[in-house]
Amino acid sequence: MNTVAGSLQWAELALAQSTPELLESCKVDSQWLLAHVLQRNSAWLRAWPEHVLTDDQWQTYQQLIERRMAGEPVAYLTGQQGFWNFDLKVTADTLIPRPDTELLVEQALQHINEEHAIVVDLGTGTGAIALALASERPAWVVTATDIHPATLAVARHNSQALNLPIRLLESAWFEQLQGERFHLIVSNPPYIEDSDEHLQGVGVRFEPVRALASGQDGLDDIRHIVAYAPEHLEKAGWLLLEHGYNQGEVVRQLLIERGFEQVRTVQDLADNDRVTLGQWPSQEP
After folding, report:
1. Which of 51, 154, 174, 276 could be stapled to 251 by a disulfide with Cβ–Cβ 3.0 to 4.6 Å?
2. What sign results for the dihedral spanned by CA atoms 214, 216, 219, 223?
3. Which CATH class is domain 4-71?
4. What are the structural domain ranges in the chain?
C-alpha cells in the first residue's frame, strides 16, 4: 500500500539521489507534488500520513517525480506558481515568475502617485507584474504586452481567473503602442547572455529561451526599451527594469546617457542589483 508517508519517503529519496541540484529542495518538492496530486495542502499531508493513495494517484505521482528528477520545474509540473498574493497559471510558453520580480512591483507602487496612472508592462509573460499592479491599484489603467500569442493567452487566463481586468496586447515591445504615453513603463525583459551556461541548468533549460536570453551581453532588449521608452513616457514618468545581478552599473549608464534623471539601482533580498529605474525629465531634454 502506498501511504502518504511512504510515498513522500520514496519521492524524497529518489529526488535526493537523482542530482545534487535537487538535494536541497527534495523534501519540499515531494510535498508540493503529492499535495497537487491529492488536491490537498501540506498540513493535510502531515495530518493523514497513513492515507492510502489510489493506483491512479500513485502512478501520477511517480510520473511527476520522474519528471522532476529530470529537472523539470515544479511550477510546470503543477501548472501554477505563487506570485505577490495570488497563484498564477504557468505553462512551457511562459517564464516562471520569480520572487525577485516582486521588487519591481514594490518599486512601481512607491514611485507612481497618480491615482489614475496609465501603466504598461512590456513582455508580460504570465501577467504577473501587470496583475500585481492592478490588484493594488484598481484605478490604474494597466496594459500588458507580449509578442507571443500562446504566452499572451496564459496572461489572459490569469487576468480572468483573478478577476483583474487589464488590457492585453500582442506587441514586440513598443511596436503596437504608437502614439501612446504612460506614467510608468515596467519590464522584466530577457537579460541573460546567449552563451550563459546557466541556460542549460536544472529547471532553467525547460523555460523558453526567448524569455531569458538577449544577445551576446544579455542587454539587447534592455537597450531597445531604454532607447524608445522616452517616446512613450509622460513628463516625469518612470521606467523600471529588472536585470541581472551584474548589470546594474551598465543599465544605469544606459539610462543616464538617454537623458533619464533620478537614476538608481535597487538590491533584492540577497543584496544583488536587481531593478534599475529612472525618471524622464519634467522638461524635455
Report:
1. 276
2. negative
3. mainly alpha
4. 4-71, 93-279
| CATH number belonging to domain 93-279 | 3.40.50.150
Neighbours of 231 (CB within 10 A): 12
Kindly list the averaged pLDDT for each block of 10 residues, start to end, along the chain of length 285: 92 90 89 94 92 95 94 92 94 91 96 92 97 97 96 97 97 95 95 68 65 76 96 96 93 97 94 96 73
pTM (2 decimals)?
A: 0.89
